[in-house]
Design goal:
Two copies of one chain form a homodimer. Chain A is mainly alpha-helical. Helix content of chain A is about 65%, strand content about 5%. At the A-B interface, helix 11, helix 12, helix 28, helix 29 and helix 30 of A face helix 11, helix 12, helix 28, helix 29 and helix 30 of B. Chains A, B: It is found in: Membrane.
């Protein structure tokens, strides 16, 4: 790619960012947009929608940047919980790494790369077209001793990252523990979820749970709640909700009509419709009540139950031990927080869960593989000549320089990015069928899937330019992986620099601008009153974490190949730092709290990125005929993996379960607390399927209590 | 290989077997050999060494065969424990498989193979030299529909084996549970081993263990024993033992001299020597007593302790839970039986154990790889022409037909087998440095290592005829593994048939004959009195299990390639069946009891063998130009792996730890047992390092209590 194309792309995106920032600074002050830009403050009642006009409202002041900047970690912790803190630490961690890498890259590696004249020697003709390649390692002469600079840079960066990783893991583990120590008693700490309860014809599920835990945990067992299948009720409730929406819309319409007089008598059938819908709603209401009753067949008991214990330690021992002689029965696991439970899918039998897991894994793999087709098309777009062949009528337009630059520099990654937008929701949907019991588990599993999806479909597919078979042949020939990576990865440096600028900068500013919620709000505004209930969104970790991590992977792998990527990456991270902090203050409210369980994923992805960098380095040095450097690169991945193994042993257990020591200490604290009696009372009713909550509906009032939102 | 060479080999080995059987039947009745052939009965006092002569003693009656045959599983269980039962079930399991496979192989596949004329068409000249290949799949015509017979045979055998595997896993899991239920209270059920105890300058190790468990397990903690480093005492004791042996030998010598009169006054210095040794022994005795005292520096406390609990359930919860906030401290694991503890190596710190484990793994890998050199030499020996080139003086001998046949048919695998004899002890030694705390863990880990060693060094190295690099290139090119296996494996059919006959038959009859112990006894007999203490041996599982499993692997992989191997394998298994049962009755006493933990290893190896067979089948059908069969072979390994995954979930947990249900039931049974008070008293002193036991030595009596033997 030529420099001017990159500059065009950078120019467009910088412009877009500035426009987005300015628009955001104005739009967020308009009361009609409060639900889009500060839903959290609105829900908390901190801000009111007072339609008072003043000059400040139309000036693009950015005092929000200052507020986001000043937010301390403790404030963030109290605002959005430990998960948000860990998310922000992932960004600051990346900032630290790439500041260090950037200094080495720009002041040491870049001059060395420019100094070389490999490309001048060979590609005299193509020099103008490859001008960005002058800044990459491709320009260093083969066999040149200057390559040792790159060698040491790789060693130093790996060491630095490992040190930081260790420090972060330790810090977050300590945070997690102190968060646990400082927390009030929470229902999920005292609860386990038991599945695959063996059914017998003589006993009900509830009785067999009672007798099992009374027998084996006589001193610590408190009570239990059997889970019921509520899929039918849930679909009825959704139907009722839709009907209710229709009715309110019609009512509003009627009111407007009454104000405007009798101009539109044509719509007189509205009242009839309202009555009709009202009747239907009444029927559904009766139906729901019928199903909610204890003896209904539609809500028969599932073979799963929440079991409550007197102490955290008792609950922990219960899920650590295998309960029954048959390991596929009485499978216990820690219960999620009540608000975190994913009620719709309680496939309770061992075999069914196992099979659905397998099916989902196969589906995910197929999806990951088939997704390559649009990627290949996108790759085709970067090739102008191919475009001209496909669409001959475009030839005249493609000769205009500006159009050419947009197409080569901007369009490909924009299309790629748009199609990638669909991936996190699809992965989330697939994962939700895998039998997880909590939203947090689903998101964390989907997060991993999206990471691998991105590595495969964006990184590897771009690097090996596309076809599924060529990719597969690389994977199936492990001996030559470093070599082939070394040939292919540097060639795509300019593409990924553009990718950071377009996908990275745009995604993070559009995150600030919240384009889709804004559009949604603009469309629905005519039909909704300002007093309508609205949901405070939560940050979809499985969408944003993989994105940040993937930019980290690009930065690490291209650090010594094409250090020019680093300033753009740093700009992205700085934007992300300010914008996500702002969003945590104004927009997102936590939907659940895992206590920082996200970090191991971050750690593993970083280790993977390092190993990938080592592989490429191995291949590059062999290709550049500096074989001692190639051989001396071998210990580095081994050492990195050993370091990872050490961290897995030292820190990972803390993120999986709490230790006897912590649990018992925390239990002792509570022992003398007079509020515990109250807590136990609440504990027993904490886990209640929202579909089974009383369904308050009176067709005469506008007020409909919506259990699905709670 | 030509048929006559195989027949020679079979003839020699059958002869050897008959001779061994006859010799054994006579020799075992000689009282002087009782210590070799019936040490177990001798130690139990069932048989006495009465040197009474009768005719029966020199007639080769084989009534021992009948006794071994009649032994029921329950008798075996009470004699040698569950581990012996599982070992025997491994053999009967293989017998069942290969009877089924043999029927299909001999009556269906063999005729199909002979029917073909692929080899006749191409190798007219070499036909005589390849006559064994007529019975293999190589003889079936390419693209012939008869290959579908092989295809279905593979499917049927896989199904049969999976069914049997499921049945056996279930059976043994139930056996394990019923064994647990029927067992008396055992110390190791109430005990955990804690390592990496954090040391502090103010507290001793013992105090910190006491305070930790008093704090977190106040109601169930009983007591603890801190482990002390006794390497020095151990070496002193060995020295003392050797000195004592020398003294007794000298004394015996003196006594004989006194009887014979003064012929050999030359040996008068014996008395002086005895005094000298006696003095040394006295010094050592003092030294040992000094070290054994509580405050000795030589036996400082290690950062590890056995901790005793009131109930099995309490002990189990303690090792299931992570104890401390720092996962690398207070690491708990189930304690082994007191007799099973491997005292010499208590590397107690987390890092040291981890590093020693890594070092041992690297050493094992290197050993496995370097071992190929003798294998290559052995492979060279099968090639007569190479021999003639290397040793020209042999040319005249090599022209004799009988010698040729011995060399090609017998010698190669004999040499291979002899060098393989050294592997299990070496693996056992290496594994013992890995930080395991019990003999059973060491043997089971060594067992796995020996299995992989055998698969790599005997199977793969033979198949790909030898060189390390060619092997590595196969592994690093996974796409072509089935193809290369399909070319190489059938070519070695005759070698492995001979291998079964020589290595298999010989090893199992020499197991009966106990050549090495017999030779040892013959050599040391002049120096030992019949009243000497002798050790009852235990079956070294890591030597015998891999051998049986490897023959299973050969049988499964060659089943459809060269069914001729099956009758020889069946003969081997029948021999093994009778002989090992006899050895369990007469020779081996169990050194420890793991409750059948061996079975998962057997199961995994069988699954591996199946997958290997599928790989080869995949390649063969592709090679034979029957591609639909090759594609339809693909689901089979996937299904097999799914079956394995199911078994892992359904049965494996039972072999790892007991469930709450079993533990609490068992604990309840004991609650009302009046003998429990007595048991708790014994429990506290059950774990005692033999090196710290009182060292009774008086230089005036001949009696030396030897703590190393207990």
């Amino acid at each position: 790619m030529i420099i001017s194309a990159l500059l065009t792309s950078v120019g467009i995106n910088t412009g877009l960012c500035v426009v987005f920032f300015a628009c955001y600074s104005i739009l967020r002050k308009q009361p009609s947009n409060y639900a889009v830009y500060i839903p959290r403050l609105l829900a908390e009642g901190t801000s009111k929608r007072i339609p008072r006009f003043n000059l400040e409202r139309i000036l693009p002041f950015s005092n929000w940047v200052a507020r986001a900047w000043r937010l301390s970690e403790d404030e963030l912790l109290s605002l959005s919980g430990l998960d948000a803190v860990v998310f922000m630490r992932m960004i600051t961690f990346s900032l630290k790494i790439f500041t260090f890498a950037g200094i080495i890259g720009i002041f040491v590696l870049l001059p060395v790369n420019c100094w070389g004249n490999q490309l001048q020697d060979f590609d005299v003709v193509d020099f103008a077209n490859n001008s960005l390649d002058v800044f990459t390692i491709s320009n260093v002469n083969s066999g040149s001793n200057w390559l040792w600079v790159h060698f040491f840079a790789v060693y130093i960066l790996t060491g630095f990252i490992c040190l930081l990783l260790h420090h972060e893991y330790k810090y977050i583990a300590l945070k997690r523990l102190s968060y646990f120590y400082s927390s009030d008693p929470r229902p999920h700490q005292f609860t386990i979820l038991v599945r695959s309860i063996p059914s017998s014809s003589s006993y009900g599920i509830s009785d067999s749970v009672e007798s099992f835990f009374r027998e084996f945990y006589p001193s610590t067992y408190v009570s239990h709640v059997v889970i019921r299948r509520t899929n039918k009720i849930r679909s009825l409730l959704i139907e009722a909700k839709n009907l209710y929406k229709k009715i309110t819309q019609l009512r509003k319409h009627n009111r407007q009509k009454n104000k405007q007089g009798d101009y539109f008598r044509l719509f007189g059938q509205d009242d009839g419709l309202i009555d009709q819908y009202g009747k239907k709603l009444g029927e559904i209401e009766q139906n729901v009540r019928l199903h909610q009753s204890e003896n209904s067949l539609a809500t028969e008991e599932a073979r799963a139950a929440f079991v409550f214990f007197k102490s955290r330690y008792a609950a922990a021992t219960a899920f650590h031990m295998q309960q029954s002689v048959n390991p596929t029965q009485w499978i216990a696991e820690p219960a999620p927080e009540p608000r975190d439970v994913y009620w719709p899918f309680f496939s309770e039998s061992f075999m069914r869960r196992w099979i659905s897991k397998l099916v989902v894994l196969v589906a995910t793999t197929l999806f990951t593989l088939l997704f390559l087709i649009p990627v290949v098309i996108v790759q085709g777009l970067t090739n102008l000549k191919q475009l001209e062949v496909l669409f001959p009528f475009l030839t005249s337009i493609l000769t205009i320089k500006f159009v050419t630059q947009i197409i080569t520099g901007y369009l490909p990654s924009l299309i790629l990015q748009l199609s990638l937008k669909a991936v996190p929701p699809i992965m989330g949907f697939l994962t939700s069928m895998q039998g997880y019991i909590s939203h947090s588990d689903i998101e964390s599993s989907a997060c991993n899937k999206v990471i691998w999806f991105t590595v495969w479909n964006v990184f590897l597919a771009t690097v090996f330019s596309g076809s599924f078979l060529s990719l597969l042949s690389v994977i199936l020939d492990p001996k030559h992986i470093p070599e082939r990576l070394a040939v292919a990865v540097p060639a795509q440096a300019s593409f990924f620099i553009t990718y950071v600028v377009t996908s990275g900068w745009t995604s993070v500013t559009s995150e600030l601008f919240r384009i889709i919620p804004l559009l949604g709000s603009l469309i629905t505004r005519p039909f909704s009153s300002p007093d309508d209930e609205f949901e405070v969104p939560s940050l979809p970790f499985h969408r944003d974490v993989p994105r940040v991590l993937f930019f980290g992977l690009l930065g690490i792998t291209y650090f010594f190949l094409a250090p020019l990527i680093l300033p753009f990456l740093l700009a992205y991270l700085c934007l992300a730092y300010i914008i996500y902090r702002n969003q945590f203050i104004n927009v997102y409210a936590p939907k659940y709290e895992t206590g920082g369980k996200l970090w191991p994923t971050v750690h593993n992805t970083m280790i993977f990125s390092l190993i990938l960098m080592h592989m490429i380095a191995l291949g590059i040095f062999a290709l550049k005929k500096l074989s001692p450097a190639s051989s001396w690169m071998l210990p580095l991945p081994v050492l990195t993996l050993l370091f990872n193994e050490y961290c897995r042993k030292r820190f990972l257990p803390i993120f999986i379960a709490y230790s006897t020591e912590s649990l018992i200490k925390k239990d002792r604290e509570d022992q003398n607390d007079p509020r515990m009696a109250e807590f136990y009372k609440k504990l027993v009713i904490a886990y209640k399927d929202p579909a089974l909550l009383p369904f308050q509906y009176t067709s005469n009032t506008d007020d409909l209590f919506d259990p699905l939102l709670s």
